[in-house]
Amino acid sequence: MPAAPAPGAVGHRATAPIQRPSSAGSRAPINPFLSNDPNIKAKRLARALVSDIVAYFPDKHREGLRNGTLRELFREEIKKSYEEYVDQMTREFAESTTHFQDALNDVLAGGKRIF
Prior knowledge:
With 115 residues, the protein is mostly helical. The protein has helices at 38-56, 58-67, 70-73, 75-89, 91-96, 99-108.
């Protein structure tokens, strides 16, 4: 007859400990939200701001995609979102990158280059 498993070991297999690289300072953080890279922060912020526009105005978004009028329909929302983006990222940074424009094209325009 086989021996009974040790208490607390039923259904558990021994696993090797997780090995982490010793040069932890030279690799990207596991969680991208912990990154201090301003480009990562800017891309995430831009996508969040533009995603909010789509989430708050789904019917208007569908209409704009269908009729090709996204730029006109969302002029005010885009302006407000861009102002928020500039407030958080600085005007110099915002004007020197295409992160906000990329988010408009990817998220609002569904991958088309409209903005």
